[in-house]
Structures are given as C-alpha cells and as structure tokens.
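Chain particulars:
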Amino acid sequence: MNKFIFQVVIEKDSDGYFASCPALQGCYTQGDSYEEVLFNIEDAIRLHIQDRLDE
C-alpha cells in the first residue's frame, strides 16, 4: 500500500471546523470538533483519490 502525505488547511469558525486539501481541487469537509474534521478530511482525501483513479 502506498502512503502519501497531503497538506491540509483546518479553520475554526462559529459552526465548528472546516478543512480543505489545496492539492486536490474540491476536496473539503467540515466537523463539529477538531478530531471529527481531521477524520473527515482523511476520508475525503481517500475518496477523492479513489474517484480520480476510477475515471
């Protein structure tokens, strides 16, 4: 299994947290806590890459 490292941007706002991966256009998510948004962005990156490989 290959392992890749992507930079992510996590921002806190009044509704919780927002995360994006600048290297993958359109790859973003949100969560109520830091831990949740971190889990969500890892999942979003995995799904984004899988979708690209399936094209």
About this structure: The domain at 9-54 is CATH 3.30.160.250 (Double Stranded RNA Binding Domain).
